[in-house]
């Protein structure tokens, strides 16, 4: 459930339901009727949702891409339900990146979390990343903290954009002692 910009978004059964803030004017966005190309079976359309201005983003973090699974975030017009664009990470390879497990929007930005990733330098698995875009889907920027433990799941504990700040949760980050 997400509420912002005078709209309420609820996801259920591979569909997104949008309402005015008083609960009226239901608009249903369904993965089988609104996407230009239908994702293969087993998808998780509606796993996470964000609203900002006249746009709404819906994630499907289990989309087959070649021989593996990643994720896709779809952007729709929040007033008409028209499909606008989709985002997929440019740097993810391997199974189950869970891109789109968490999404947040605000201040002209869109943040997308992905957890099941291997860190390119340390080789640690399930460290996670956050992808930051402009709300039109341009200017991908990857955010990772300097220190992550295996299984930290950075970007999955929650994402919030407010007052020019991006707050990122790492639901399993272990305490790391800094040497003196």
Question: What is the structure about, briefly put?
Answer:
Helices cover 0% and strands 47% of the residues.
Give an overview in words.
The protein is mainly β and about 180 residues long. It has no helices and 14 strands. It has a four-stranded antiparallel beta sheet with strand order 1-2-3-4, with no helix packed on it. A hairpin with a 2-residue loop joins strand 6 and strand 7.
Major sheet: size, sense and barrel closure? Answer: 4 strands, antiparallel
Determine the number of helices (DSSP H or I, runs of at least 4 residues). 0
Number of strands: 14
Oligomer state equals single chain
Low-confidence stretches: 176-180
- Helix-strand sequence: EEEEEEEEEEEEEE
Task: Estimate percent helicity.
Answer: under 10%
Terminal Cα span: 44 Å
- In terms of DSSP E residues, the strand content is over 45%
Supply the helix-strand structural class: mainly beta
Give the overall pLDDT as a whole number.
76
Widest beta sheet: strand line-up: 1-2-3-4
Shape: globular
Q: Compute the gyration radius: what is it?
A: 16 Å
